Amino acid sequence: MRLVLSGGWFGEEGLYSCEVKEVIYPQSVEELKDFDGFVILSYELGGRFLELNLKETPLPKIVALKLSQPMRFEAEPKAVHLEPIGMSLSELEFKERVDKVKGYIERGDVYQINLSTKIDFSLQGKPSDLFLQFWERQPVPYGFLLELDDLFVMSGSMELFLEKRGKIICSKPIKGTGKSPDTILASEKERAENLMITDMVRNDIGRVARTGSVRVAELFKVEEYETLCQMHSTVEGETGENFPRIIRETFPPASVTGAPKHRAVQVIDELEPHPRGYYCGAAGFVEADGDFTLSVLIRTAFGGGSELSYFAGCGIVWDSDPDREWKELLLKTKAFYP
Known about the structure:
One of its GO terms (biological process) is L-tryptophan biosynthetic process. This protein is an alpha+beta fold. It has eight helices and 19 strands.
């Protein structure tokens, strides 16, 4: 059992590897109050926090790892082959649901919905080699591969859900995807989408922050990656709350749900035929002193044996074009399945 992860978690370049010394499956986030290690939080925990009955996988909702010290990791990936074997939403079905989302928006139920599809694959080769190819195509700060006896989870995420250092808590929600910075910045739709989610994150952090301390430190910043560009904003605040309370008030991440969050999660569960599992959840390091760094589990796959599922989604707003949203979804699969 091991965890291979991007040096970005430590402010370094390249990849690192940790031996998994112990795996724990807590039943609630309260059990993580004084934990020190790496955790994965399933999106499905959001159903508990929002008091909603969501579709669920049989996978553990929380995975907590005690690790050895990270060591530099270098390896040449061997050949692997991915064979698509199905999608939870085809192109036609996805576009039909985009129109349904716009119907909800027209009626005033929601302002934005993050809509996704699940792509199932058969894997010929090792998950570690698949992850290395994924990483080489698109290095990101919050990438990782967790290999357990009967489960593997890999993520090529570039999105910071929450980071707490001392009293300062920070989030960098991503909304806005394109092939170039100019394309994203010139799009009113992408900027409006980003602004809506930034406001949601301000609200979420405001639930655990000192009154008057929440601020938008960056707005509409575009980062370039190998296969696409993404726009994010940065929200900060001051808090004295502990890890469980912060997670209960902010999870699941706003950027992968929609606005308003409670209704958006209900609509997502209605329109998506698949449970999300770890996709759109969070993962990262928590420390016994209360500090932590969590990514949003976008660009994420999980499975066991020779089968795995990868997910991709888009933020849908009133002026979303179904054809363009489908193209954006495919763009988000390029690093994983060229």
